[in-house]
């Protein structure tokens, strides 16, 4: 009886660990910005699984560093602001980046500057249809 309970507890723990590694534990996050195409956000999980989100450049209004207060602490994070299709001045959605890795502010500033350079090039380059 006790060995069955112990075996079941070990089995449930192992299943929980596998689920955690496959769906929750993000090992690496990356951001690829191509001015003529869009922004690709990739999350690599500890199990080897990858999740990729692609945002077309036409949807991107801006990239900003946002701040939030969490547990008596200020947290900075990078966000992509998506343009509202009905209101060109409005924002339809905010997509937070690097939520798992939580890089320091100085690292976020470097990524922000690079993104802004690419966004500025896109605005100054004439687009062909």
From TrEMBL:
InterPro entries: PIG-H, PIGH-H_dom. GO terms for biological process: GPI anchor biosynthetic process. Pathway: Glycolipid biosynthesis; glycosylphosphatidylinositol-anchor biosynthesis. Residues 30-99 form the Phosphatidylinositol N-acetylglucosaminyltransferase subunit H conserved domain. One of its GO terms (cellular component) is glycosylphosphatidylinositol-N-acetylglucosaminyltransferase (GPI-GnT) complex. The chain crosses the membrane at residues 6-24. Keywords: Membrane, Transferase, Transmembrane, Transmembrane helix. One of its GO terms (molecular function) is transferase activity. Belongs to the PIGH family. This is PIGH acetylglucosaminyltransferase. It comes from Aegithalos caudatus (Long-tailed tit).
